[in-house]
Every structure is written in structure tokens, then in C-alpha cells.
Amino acid sequence: MKQRNLLLFGLLVIPILVFGQRREVVGMKYLDENRRPIYRENVIIPNVGEYQVLKCDFHMHTVFSDGNVWPSIRNQEAWEEGIDAYAITDHIEYTPHKADVNVNHNRGYELLKESAEKSNLILVKGTEITRNTPPGHFNAIYIDDATDFIEERSTNEFDREAVMKAAEQDAFIFWNHPGWQPGIEGSYEWIPFVDDLYKNKALHGIEVVNGFGIHMKALDWCLDKGLTVMGTTDIHNLVAHDYDFSKDYVHRTMTLVLAKERSAESIREALDEGRTVAWASKYLLGKEENVRNLFYSCVELMPSHYTEVRNNGIKINHYEIRNNSDLYFELSLSDGSATKNVVLYPRSTQLITANEETASLSGEVVSTYVRSDQHLKVDFDLN
Ligand SMILES: [Zn+2]
Ligand SMILES: [Zn+2]
């Protein structure tokens, strides 16, 4: 009996020691009620056809450039906030902590490689090429080695070579926050320098959303030139310092990547093919096809569950419209006679009605942009 008790004790106690935060010490009282619970948030977005929707943030800083945190914090945040893949993209040309932190452009990635693997996150190696504006900044991800990138930026002379260092490594390169310094001529224009990169296949995407700013002109450039739409935090502080997580539905800005598999290779393939949607606040921005496919994967109109006969004999059908995702949609729907504004909160259902004669409901998803001046148009067949 004694041995069996020991065995039971072992089974019960060992998992607690492995997964618990600490050992109990006799003579200590612990105030665990004041700890913030630690868990990974599952951001629910249904598959889009054959693709998984991966939550990615490929623009973040640490103390290895001008960020305020050690790299390990970035992994903790990404894990807790439901991110699938991320990159540390410290500046090559701007390292204000260099008196205290050795300049090593690969170090953020090296320090995180193991913790990313342990927490089942995909870490992509990246950097921010930080030229003066214009042309401004470019992120290069899927690089091999940032050691020999060009730190010198006292003149514009090396701008092209600086970006080409990344292109030589077959990086995925995107133009960051165009228009971030509005006072400077050419800072928010499709300038010859950028056009040259584009024509030489050294530019693959643009940040349509950087943190709390939407670059509407960048959305149109992406659509017109076949570039990939990106959304990133460009976070320098703690994410929870900058984003108000005490409010409902607040999430960090990110890129939703429609990938065949949850792997670095699949994400790269999707980025190359432009299968992304930027998700920031309540907005979704991207190529119409991607936003449309994402919308119809998340939102469904159920068959009518009730028919009401009014005094004048007119029959009104009642429907449920369901949002099966953590995304937020605002619809402006019209049945030919009236427009209804419908807010589909994350993982929720609304009731809508339509005259039995009505064949379809059509309208716009006003929380989406498929051009700077255009929302996604949707149609629901009622028959
Ligand atoms: Zn930047
Ligand atoms: Zn940055």
C-alpha cells in the first residue's frame, strides 16, 4: 500500500512541479491572486478554402536597435496574443543603445530561435533597412545574415546597394510606412527609386498599415502593381503599453496570411503570391479576392427560420447571420427597399429580415477596404 501511495503522490505532484510557476515553501504565503493569468489567446479565423489564416507580425524592435525591450519579451507577447509567425526587424543603420548593447544585427533572431520553437511559433529572420526619407525604410524578411548590410547613411549614395543586399539573399522586401514624414517632398509618392526596386524585383510588398496608421495610398499601389499588402505593429514598447487591451476586441495590427500550411516556407509562398489581408482595429484591407474569400469563410447567412405574416398579407422572412470568427464586420445591407446596418461582433449572431419576395441582399462591408475609396461588395442569395 505504501508503494502505491508513493506512486499516486508522484503522479499528482510531478505535473504540478513541471507546469506550476513555483515550489511552495513552508513559512511563505503567496499572493497569486494578484498575478496576471498567463495563457495563449486563440484567435479564431476559419480556413479560407484550402488555406489556413495565419496571424503574422513582421515588424518589431528590441534593444538591439531603438526598441525598449529585450527580445524574449517579443516571443512572450506573440505567444500570448495568438500570433503564429513573427520577425524581429531591428534597424541596421540606427542603434541608439550601442553604448550598452553590442551591435549585432543577427542577435535578436539568435536569442529567440529556441524559445520560438519551444512555444510553437514561427520565427523568421529579418531586419529594417533604414535609409533617410525619401526613400525611407524597408523591411527585409527571410534573410540569411544581416552582418554585411550597410550601416552608412550619411548620403543617399548607398541606398540602392543597401536594399540590394537583402535582394541578393532572396529576401521578401517591403516598403515601410510610406508617408511617415509628411513634411518631406517625395516621402509619400511612388518615387523613381522605389519604381526601380520594383522593376528589378527587389520590392515585394508595402506596409498598408503600420501600427495605428493606415496608408491608403499604399493600398492602391499594392493593388495596381501586384504588391503584397502588409500590416505590422512596428512596436518599440511593450505591445500592451501601446495597445489598450482593457477594451473589447483590441488586437495588435497584423498581417493575416492565407497559407497552405503552418510553416515558414508556406508563409513565404503566400507572401510571394500576395495572399494577405492587413488586420488593424476593426478594419480589413487587401486585394478584393482575398478580403472576399476571408469574409465568406467567416460569415454565413442561415436559411430562414421563421416567416411572419403581416396584417397586409406581406410575408417577412427572418434570418440569422453568423460571424464564426474573431474578426469584426460592419455591413450596410440593402434588400432593394431599405438599408440595414448590421454589426457582426466577433463570434456572434444577428437577426435580419427580408420581404419574402426579395431574391437577394446586397451591400457593402464598410469595415473593409479593397481600394482606398472602396469597400468589399457582398451578396447573399435568399432562395
Ligand atoms: Zn521604420
Ligand atoms: Zn521599424
Low-pLDDT runs of 5+ residues are: 1-19
**In which range does the helix fraction lie?**
10-25%
pLDDT average, as an integer?
94
Rg over CA atoms, rounded to whole Å, is: 25 Å
> Count of DSSP helices?
9
Total beta strand runs: 20
Note the overall shape. Answer: globular
Which architecture of the largest domain would the CATH scheme give at its second level? Alpha-Beta Barrel
Provide the structure class: alpha+beta
Instruction: Tell me the CATH superfamily of the largest domain.
Output: Metal-dependent hydrolases
Keywords for this entry:
single chain, 383 residues, TIM Barrel, Immunoglobulin-like, twelve-stranded mixed beta sheet, 9 helices, binds zinc ion
Please tell me about this protein's structure.
The protein is an alpha+beta fold. It folds into two domains: 52-286, TIM Barrel (Alpha-Beta Barrel), CATH 3.20.20; 298-381, Immunoglobulin-like. It contains nine helices and 20 strands. The chain has helices spanning 2-19, 71-80, 107-118, 159-168, 192-199, 216-225, 239-242, 264-273, 288-298, and strands spanning 52-57, 85-88, 122-130, 137-141, 172-175, 205-210, 213-214, 228-232, 254-259, 276-280, 283-286, 299-301, 306-309, 315-323, 329-334, 339-344, 348-355, 360-365, 368-369, 376-381. The strands form three sheets. Strands 1, 2, 3, 4, 5, 6, 7, 8, 9, 10, 11 and 19 form a twelve-stranded mixed beta sheet that branches. Strands 12, 13, 14 and 17 form a four-stranded antiparallel beta sheet that branches. It is globular, with a radius of gyration of 25 Å. One zinc ion binds next to loops.
